[in-house]
Structures are given as C-alpha cells and as structure tokens.
C-alpha cells in the first residue's frame, strides 16, 4: 500500500520518439540531479499511445514530444487529462506553432528543440516547484490494484475496518490495505484529527459537534472518544481560527455547536 502525503522522488515520464532527443532529456535530468541532489524516478515512452494505453496518475511531470508517429503529444495530453488533472505537462517540439494549443491541456510551457540546458533547467525547476506545492495537497494511494492521486480537500475522513482502510471522499469510497496509524503520521500536518480508534477526520469537513459526535459536511456523524474530545475541540477551534471566517459556509454553525458541546464535555469526561 502506498499512502500519505505525496513526498517522494519526482516521478517523470519522458515521451519522445527520437532516440537522440530522448537521450538529451535524460542527460539533462542526470545533470540537474548532480547539481541539486534532486532524485528522479524516470519512465521512457517512445510514443503517445504507449503512455496512454495503461496510464495511471502516478507521474509528477511529463515531458511530451508533440510530433510522434502514432499518437502525437497533444492528443496524448488530452487523453491523460481525462484521468489526471494534476500532472505537470511540458511540451518539447521543433515547431512552436504546434504548442500554441497547450492551454487546452493546462500545459505549463513548451521547450523548443534543440533544447538548451539552461532553458530545460529553468522549466524543470518551475515544474518541481509546482509539484511540491500540489504534493502537500494530495494523497497517493493504491486502490483496486492501481495507484491514484486523491486531493486532500476531497477526503472527508479515513476509516479503519479490521485490516482495511476506507478512504471516504466526496465522490465515493476507496478501499486500501494498511493502518490508520500510518495515515495519521503521514497526514500529521494536514489538518486531520484522530477522533477515535476507527476514524481520522478531515477538519475542513467538520461542520458541527453534537454530544460525542462530530458532524461532517455530508451529514454523517462520527464518534469522538471521551479521552480525545477536549483535544479535538481545541484542535478544531484552532483550525477554524486559522482558516478564517470564509473557509466554510457553516463555520459559524460549527463554532456554536462546538461551544455548546465543550460545556457538556467537561461533565462527560
């Protein structure tokens, strides 16, 4: 199981049908690695069809040649965007007119062949910076035999049932193996709180507290254990204060419910 905030070697896909051009990109990546200490995991594809065929959203950056024999880079990028809206795409082309439609697939930029190292280095650094910004907001998990990236904002809570972890999201449930403790450690700085032995709650989706339960934005009520309730209320209050009054439409409701529950918790604990 792979879980937790995306912190790993930068995963790069190079899609290029010209062996010499492909080798130049690989050499540049190795040079950047030597200069900065940044570690890469690199996959090479010689055609757009090859990467699209079994694409899973595990890549951080894609360097895509535009002109290829079977499926060009623009067509491949459109197919990739149907499954992955986070990967950073940089086109490499000998004809800049082909890259003008890069906005359609939210491409970061394009590099003109023959690519000089300075330009490549600048775009690679910009891409890595973007990956780091996005990485703090996503979760890489393995579900149903494939890896996928889930935005933390879409995660309601994570539940432990026996030896299975259920990630509850706004669009459904994902079942993965692992432990809740592992997710708790990996999400320690991401506004998640362990409310009891079964639940790791995303505070941004807590809209109220009723008795021993926290009420989620989807209407579910999740139990907060008595020993954890005081810490939960304190953490929730700190989160709401840091998030500001416009972070959720229901913040004021959550605050009033929390205050009422705080009084009762002193009697319960």
From TrEMBL:
Domain HTH LytTR-type: 139-238
Molecular function in Gene Ontology: DNA binding; phosphorelay response regulator activity
Keywords: DNA-binding, Phosphoprotein
Pfam families, per database record: LytTR (PF04397), Response_reg (PF00072)
All residue ranges annotated as the Response regulatory domain in the record: 11-128
Listed SUPFAM superfamilies: CheY-like (SSF52172)
InterPro entries, sorted: CheY-like_superfamily (IPR011006), LytR-like (IPR046947), LytTR_DNA-bd_dom (IPR007492), Sig_transdc_resp-reg_receiver (IPR001789)
Keyword presence, Phosphoprotein: yes
Chain intervals with Low complexity compositional bias: 254-269
Record PTM 4-aspartylphosphate, positions in chain: 65
UniProt region (Disordered), positions on chain: 244-269
Domain of life: Bacteria
Protein name (record): LytTr DNA-binding domain protein
